[in-house]
Request: fold
Amino acid sequence: MSAQTRRRWTVIAITVAIGAGTAVVSYRHAWDVVTAVGNRGLIGYLIPLFPDGLIFLSSTSIYACSQDKLPSSPWAWIGAIVGVCVTVTMNVLGGLAGGWGGALVGALTPVVFLLSLFVLEHTLRTAPKQQPGGRPRRCPHGVPTGVADGSVADFLHRRDCLGQDPTFKDIADAWGVDRRKLPARVAAVSAPVAAPEPEPSGAALNGGSA
Reply:
């Protein structure tokens, strides 16, 4: 395991631990508030899950859209804002039993949970793609000799090496080429890159078997 992989797994482990701990604390504060106003049984256990679950769902949707260069749904932003407001309110009310200090700690809990969630999502989505054998993918794209070659190389490099999801329109606009011709050029170049010819055997190099 490389040093970069170890660091990535360390970040993931720490953020998961922080997120799990703050989620438990946030749930307990919300449960105290929900049960204090008369909600018992199954309802009392389910309601505290709603705000943090809404934050997780909305933030994941927003981050996925940003990675795919797509506009985020306004409902995702509304859900994230509502989830943050609800969980902060519940945690502040749940911490008021310990005075203003307890209320401050309660307010910080969902903030830490939200930050750890963003860090974890970013770490997972920026992991470099690897080949089946576990070795990091090597960039097979050479230096372009013209604008047309440059647009194709840019598209393939973003897709295959950086793990992005570029669109033909964005690449064509950036390089000033015809968007209608770009898909065919990419298909013509990416086929041999995706499936390289097998290396010749030792017998073939020596002119045949002995």
In short: The CA atoms of residues 96 and 103 lie 5 Å apart. The radius of gyration is 25 Å. Residues 131-136, 192-198, 201-205 have pLDDT under 50 and may be disordered.
